[in-house]
Amino acid sequence: MRKTVDEFLLKYGMHYNTIDMDKHMHGFVSQMRAGLAGEKSSLRMIPAYISIKDNLPKDEEVIVIDAGGTNLRVGSMRIKGGSLTITNFDKYPMPGSKVPISKKDFFAKLADYLEPIIDLSDKIGFCFSYPIEILPNCDGKILQLTKEIRIEGGIGSILGKSLNEELRARGKKEKRIVLLNDTIATLLGGVSANQKTYENYIGYILGTGTNTSYMETCANITKVADISSMSGQMAINLESGNFDGFDHGAFDAEIDKESKEPGYYKMEKMISGAYQGNGIYRTVRGAIRDGLFSDEMAERFTKFNDFALADVSAYCADISGDNVLSNLTETADDKEILLDIIDASYERSARIAATVFGAILTHCGYGKDSSRPVCITAEGTTFTKSTLFRPKLDIYMKSFVGDKLGRFYDIITVEDSTLRGTAIAALMSE
What we know:
This protein is α/β, with parallel strands linked by helices. The chain folds into 2 domains: about 1-50 and about 180-415, 3-Layer(aba) Sandwich (Hexokinase, domain 1), CATH 3.40.367.20; about 60-180, Nucleotidyltransferase, domain 5 (2-Layer Sandwich). It is built from 16 helices and 15 strands. The strands form 4 sheets. The protein has a 6-stranded mixed sheet, with helices on both faces. The chain has a 5-stranded mixed sheet with strand order 4-3-2-6-10, sandwiched between helices. It has a two-stranded parallel ribbon with strand order 5-9. Helix 5 packs across helix 16 and helix 9 (about 275-290) crosses helix 13 (about 330-365). The termini are far apart.
């Protein structure tokens, strides 16, 4: 049975063995270095203009905006007694996630959300989990909108400047607004945890989308002369979901073709939460066409037009339980084949993630000392809630990153790491 599934997945380019970890790692490193030099690369390598500082202000409050995949959180945080305390938090739908919204209405909606807490601080940390160019003043320009978010006229907008314009129009005082990506915020959330002495830090998101960040030596960021002449390190947002070095399978290509921006964020469309359930659905649809499943299951499948990842996880936890995908299957063979397809999808995701981590550690030379490992702070519902992903990632991290590359690392999760990191970024800003 497994051989049949493997043959089917290889036929359509969806098998995890299409991920040659060593080859693709070197390709990733090459594109990292090209991106840092301003040469052609699918990795944007965006400087964050944020460095890690030892000391933070004491007993200061900061407003935080976290614009994520489908939700937006607004609230405040205060440093007290060396720790960050979260207060006044509310969650809203991300404007533009359900229906298109104009640029003007987007910033008006943000100001509406901020209204109850706008006078608590003169500093705002704004985590915007989409591709943005960070400017030297720590504002951010929207480069692209991913995860199917639609803000009409939003591309090219300067986020902090536009939000301050809306606040001033409402008679409010202008704020010091610091923009950062969610992976940078997650990295800083790991710094805030202070669990042990780490050589360096990586931030990783695998949720609705996927991305990675790390600390780069400023001298290596040669595409920006003012940065390359600086000493020390600066956080870099890779926009790793846009990496184009992994070959798309037939069903990945279908998703890409039908997405809002075909040709972009090819890796993200292979593994992230916004797409993986649909990828599994399309793979199962192809397997039905090729006769791998029973006629009864094929008939039931006609009532589906997608798979939710929550239903995929429920099935993996109990393939014979009372859940959506278990009820879709008819025979024991159906159940086994469906589980094999899902398992292979997560196997491929784990190989991709371990390849990315291996590339960063190889490029930077981090993680060679077992007493000072690299801290990888990970966040995102696909990372934390998928039944199969994390165990598979741990296996590949040990065999490839640990045993083959000889690197030492800890993968940690930090409660509210994005919020904590966003607050720290605003508090560290001059």
